[in-house]
Amino acid sequence: MESRFYLGSILIYCTLLLFLVTIDGASYGTHKRGISSVFSLFNLKEKSKFWNEAVIRRDFGDLETSISDKVGVANYTKAGNIASYLKLSEVDSMYLPVPVNFIFIGFEGNGNREFKLRVEELQRWFTKIDHIFEHTRVPHISGAFTQLYKNIDDKVQQHQLPIISHINYNFSVHAIQMGGKVSSVFERAIKILARRENVSDTRDGSDAIWQVDVDMMDVLFTSLVDYLQLESAYNLFILNPKPDNKKAKYGRGLSDSEINFIKENKSLQGKINEAGSVPQKFPDLFKSKRPLYEKNPMAKFAWTITEDTDTVEWYNLCLDALNNLEKLYQTKDTADTIQIKVMELLNGKNVDLKLLLEKELKSGDFRGLHAECLTDTWIGKDRWAFIDLSAGPFSWGPAVGGEGVRTELSLPNVERTIGAVEEISENEAEDRLQDAIQERFSVFGDNDHQAIDILLAEIDIYELFAFKHCKGRKVKLALCEELDARMTDMKSELQSFQDEEYDESHRRKAVEALKRMENWNLFSDPNEPFQNYTVARDTFLAHLGATLWGSMRHIISPSIADGAYHYYERISFQLFLITPQKVRHIKQLPVDLQALQDGLSSLLLPSQKIIFSPYMLPLSEDPALAMAFSVARRAAAVPLLLVNGTYRKTVSSYLDSSILQHQLRRLNEHQSLKGSHAHSRSTLEIPIFWFIHGDPLLVDKHYQAKALSDMVIVVQSEESSWESNLQCNGQSLLWDLRRPIKAALAATSEHLAGLLPLHLVYSQAHEMAVEDWIWSVGCNPLSITSPGWHISRFQSDTIARSYIITSLEESIQLVNFAVRLLTKQHTSDQTYKLFRSQERELVNKYNYVVSLWRRIASVTGELRYVDAMRLLYTLEDASNEFFHYVNETKALLHPINCTKERRVQVEFDMTTIPAFLIVLGILWLVLRPRRAKPKIN
User: Fold this and answer.
1) What is residue 148's three-state secondary structure?
2) What are phi and psi of 800, to 5 degrees?
3) 3-state secondary structure of 201
4) Residue 636 burial by CB count (10 A; 0-12/13-18/19+): exposed, middle or buried?
5) Neighbouring C-alpha atoms within 13 Å toward the C-beta of 812
6) Phi and psi of 247, rounded to 5°?
7) How many CB atoms lie within 10 A of CB 454?
8) In this structure, what DSSP letter does residue 485 have?
9) What pTM did the predictor assign?
10) Of 807, 852, 879, nearest in space to 565 by CA
11) 3-state secondary structure string, 528-594?
12) 692, β-bridge pairs
C-alpha cells in the first residue's frame, strides 16, 4: 500500500511538470559570428593620409573615463563578442610604398623625329598605369617534365602563404624630363662608344651594325643617378636619341668577328698577354652632386622638368671624358682597338668576363667564349634600367613554341608611329600630286573623252590627295590652298553642265558630283586639327605606358616562387662536389670555388654572414650515392627546331630531380650527407649537390641547375658550346656547360628567397605564370641574354622584400586568427569584470604589432631594407605574444562561459486551476484506498 502511494506521488509530480512548468535554461546562446570588416592598413584615397590612424586601437587610457559600471557592462554585452567590443577586424591588405622615377631623355624636342612630350599627355596616359597591385606567388610545378612554371595542378597544391598576397605595392611614379645637355651627352656617347659588330664590314651608315659598349654606358647612367641623388628610388631611363645613321645595339664583351680575329691572330694574343693594366678611361664622375629633390614626392604621379643648369657640371665632366676617349680610338686600327677593348675587360669590374678571358687566353682555343646577345634594354647593377626606343630591331626568347617573345613590335617605336605620319614638304607634295595625276589619266589613253569625265577624274585625284596630305596637318601646305581655289572653279564648271545643251547623262554626273562636293571640307577643317598626328602620339604613349607597367611587374616588384622565405642572420652553403673518381685535392676540380663563393655572397644582404663549406664526394667510394645518381639518370629524345628552320632530334641525358631528391633524402637520413651546421632560427643551411660529369648532362631535360624544396642540384659537364632552345636575333644561344655558375646562382636565389627568371610573372587573369621576355636582359643570373651572373640591386631588393613580405604575411595571418578567436568569444555580464583586467594588456599588444607594421612599411618605402630586417624578429615575437595573450584571455573566460545558470519558471493562468482539479480527480479515482474485503477461509 505504501509503495503504491509513493508511486502515485511521483506520477503526480511528473504530470504537473509536463503540463504546467516551462524550463528556461539561462545558458549562453549561440551568437552570430561578427562579420569582419575588410579594410586596409593604409588609406590610399586622394586627399587623405597615407596611413589610416583608425587602424591603431585607441589608447587604453581613453577607455578609463567616468562611465559608470552599468554603462560599461551594457556596452560590453551589447557588442556581442570581444572583437566587436574592441573594434578589431581582420586585416585584408597592407600596402608597401615603392618610389619609381621614369626619366625621359631625348623628349624635349631635339631627339628622334623632334618628338616632344607634354605634361598633359603624361598625366593623361601615365596615370592610367595600375599604380597598385598585389604581390603574387607562382605555384610550384608538380613533376619534372613540365617546363618552367606553366601547367599547375592546384588540386594537390598546399600553399604556405596565399598566391595573391595580403601585401600590395603602392607605386609613386615621378616622371622627370631631362634637358638638351643630357640628351647631347648620351647621343655623343653612343656615337663614340659604338664599334662595328663585324670588323671586316667596311660599309658606312645604316647598312652596318654597331655595338655600343654597355659597360661604358653603365658609367654614364650610374654617374647621372648619383649626381642627381636619385638612389632612393628605382630609376628607369627612356631614351629617344637622335640617330646618326647607325644601327646601334647594346652589348657586353666581344662580338663573334672580334673573337675570331683574336683566335686567328697569334701576335695579338701575345701583345694582350704581355700588356699590363690600362688606365681608367672615364674620370671619377661622382665627386660633385646636385640633388634633384630632397625627397621623392611619393605622389601617384608627379612631373619634373630639369633645367640645363641642374646638370651643367655633370655635362662638362662627361663631355671631357668622351672627347678624350674619342681621341684614343681615332688613330687605332682594328687590332689596336680590339686589344684596348680586351684590356678593358681584363681590368674591369665584370668578374665573369675577366675570369673567362683569362682562361681562354691561357688555353688559346676560345671554345667557351661566345658573343653576347645585343639588346635595346638593359638592367644595370644599381637601381636603374634603360630602354632605347631608337635602337633595334631585336628578337629573343624561345626558338620554337614560346609565348611573350621579344619581337620588333614589342617596344614602342617613334619611327613607326610618329614618323609614319610625319608631314611632307612642299616639293614632296607637288611630286606626289603629279604622280597621282599621271597614274589616274594614264587609263584614258589617246581616245577622245568627254569633258565631264576628265573633270570627274580631276576631282578624284584632288579628293584622295587632300585626305592624305592636307587634312589634319599641323602646317598647311600652299599647294592645298591652291587646290582649294581650284575646287571652287570646278564647282562653277560643273554647274555649267546643267544647261539643256548637254545630254541627260552629263547633267546627272554633274549633279552627283556637286552633291558630293557640298559635304567636303578637305582643305580647312578647324574641328579636327592634327588628327592623324594626335592618334599616332596617343598610340605611341599607350604602348609606352604598357611597357613601363611591364617593367614594374618584371624587374621592380616581380612575382616570387610559392613558399615562405624567412630571414636568417647566417646562411650556410653546404657544397657537395660529386665526381666520378677521387682527386687528390678539391682545388684540382674544374670548379672555380672562389668565384662561386663570391657569387653566393652576392645573394646575401649586408646584415647576413656566409658560411661556405665545400665537400668532395667521389662516386667510386660511396656506393649508395652512386646508386642514387644511376637511378635518377634518364635519357630523352628532344625534338629541336633551329632558328633557320632545320629540324633535329637529339638524345639528351639528364637527371630526374624528383627521383634524385628522394634518393638524397634517404641518404641524409643515415647522416651520410649531413653538413656541419644544423638549422636554427639564426642559421639556414642550404645543401648544394654539384654533379661533375664528362658527357653532356642536364637536370629535367632543360636546365643546368634546379631549386628544390630542401636542396639545390647543379650539373657540370665538358661541353663548351651546347645549343639551347633559346635564340637571340636569329642566332641560337650557346651554353658553356663547363661553367654553370650562372645557373647555380639562379637556382640558389630561388631556393633562398623565391627569385624567378625575369620573364616569368603570375597572371591573375590566367591564374598561372605567363611569359614576357622583354626584360630578360642584363648580366644577372635571372636573364637569358647574357652569361653574366652579377646580382643587380633590383634582385637584392627583391630578396629583401621577400623576407619582409613573408614576415608581414605570417604576422597578418596570426593576428587575423587571433581576431577570429575574439570574434567567437561572446560577451556577458559575468565575464565583464574579468575581461577588464585583461583589456589593457590586450590592446597594448595589438597596438604594438600594428606599430611595427607601420614602421616596417615606412622603412621599406625608403628602400632601407637592412633597417627593416632588424624589425622582423621583433615583429615575429610581438605577433606571437598577442596571439598567446588572446589564448590566455580565452582560457581565463572559459570556465565562466561553461558555467550555466538555470532557472525554473512556472507560469499560471486561468486554465491552470481547472487542469489541477481534473488531474487530481482522475488520480483520486485511480489511486483511492479501497476497503479491505474480509478473508474467508
Assistant:
1) coil
2) -65, -45
3) coil
4) middle
5) 22
6) -85, 90
7) 12
8) H
9) 0.80
10) 807
11) CCCHHHHHHHHHHHHHHHHHHHHHHHHHHCCCEECCCCCCCCEEEEEEEEEECCCCCCHHHCCCCHH
12) 716
Residue 269's region, left for phi above 0, alpha for psi from -120 to 50, else beta, is alpha
Annotate 56-87 with three-state secondary structure.
CCCCHHHCCCCCCHHHHHHHHHHHCEHHHHHC
Ramachandran angles phi, psi of 40, nearest 5°: -110, 150
Q: State the amino acid at position 54 in one-letter form.
A: A
Q: What is the mean pLDDT of the chain?
A: 80
104 strand-pairing partners: 177, 238
DSSP alpha helices (H): ranges in 372-477?
414-417, 426-441, 451-469
Residue in the block written with cell 620588333: 408
Residue 545 in grid coordinates: 605606358
User: Long-range contact list for 911-918, CB < 8 A, 24+ apart?
Assistant: 912/20, 915/19, 915/20, 916/16, 916/20
Residue in this structure with the C-alpha cell 567590443, named with its chain if needed: 85
CB 44 within 8 A of CB 923: no
Rg of the chain (C-alpha set): 40
List the beta strands (DSSP E) in 334-485: 377-379, 384-388, 396-398
- Quickly state the pLDDT bin for 675 (edges 50, 70, 90): very low
Contact 522, 467 (CB under 8 A): yes
User: What backbone torsions phi and psi does residue 397 show, to the nearest 5 degrees?
Assistant: 135, -165
DSSP code, position 901: E
Peptide bond into 526 cis (omega under 30): no
DSSP designation for 825: S
**Continuous segment of H or E residues that includes residue 727:** strand 722-728
Looking at residue 931, what is its pLDDT?
Answer: 60
The pLDDT score that the predictor gives to residue 346 is 87
Burial of 165 (0-12, 13-18, 19+ CB in 10 A): buried
Core vs surface per residue 828-856: b (16+ CB within 10 A) or e? eeebbeebeebbeebbebbbbbbebbbeb
Virtual torsion, Cα 657, 658, 663, 666, nearest 10 deg: 130
Grid coordinates belonging to 317 = 665632366
Smallest Cα–Cα separation from 197: which of 86, 338, 363, 37? 338
Task: Give the three-class secondary structure for 705.
Answer: strand
**Rounded Cα distance, 881 and 862, in Å:** 28
Cell numbers found for residue 683: 642559421
Q: Shortest CA distance to 687 belongs to which of 704, 665, 702? A: 665
Contacts of range 640-646, beta carbons closer than 8 Å, 24 or more positions apart? 640/400, 640/723, 640/725, 641/399, 641/400, 642/399, 642/723, 642/732, 643/399, 643/727, 643/730, 643/731, 643/732
What is the share, in percent, of the chain residues with pLDDT greater than 90? 40
**Grid cell digits, residue 506:** 552629263
The residue type of 837 is S
Q: Phi/psi class of residue 729: alpha, beta or left (left: φ > 0; alpha: ψ in -120 to 50)?
A: left
The pLDDT of residue 424 is: 64
DSSP secondary structure string for all residues of 18-67: HHHEEEEEEPPPPPPPPPPPPEESB--STTS-SB-GGGSPPPGGGT-SS-
pLDDT in tens, 816-842: 999 999 999 999 888 888 888 899 999
In terms of Cα–Cα distance, which of 167, 324, 71 is closest to 808? 167
Whether 254 contacts 369, CB under 8 Å: yes
Q: What is the residue type of 340?
A: I
Q: Which one, of 872, 169, 165, lies nearest residue 562 by Cα?
A: 165
Q: How far is CA 572 from CA 523, 596, 601, 679, in A?
A: 76, 14, 11, 9
Helices (H), 194-310: 214-227, 256-264, 266-274
Query: Distance from first CA to last CA of the chain, Å, rounded?
Result: 23
Cell numbers for 154? 592546384
Read off the pLDDT of residues 241-253 as tens digits, 9 standing for 90 and up: 988 777 788 999 8
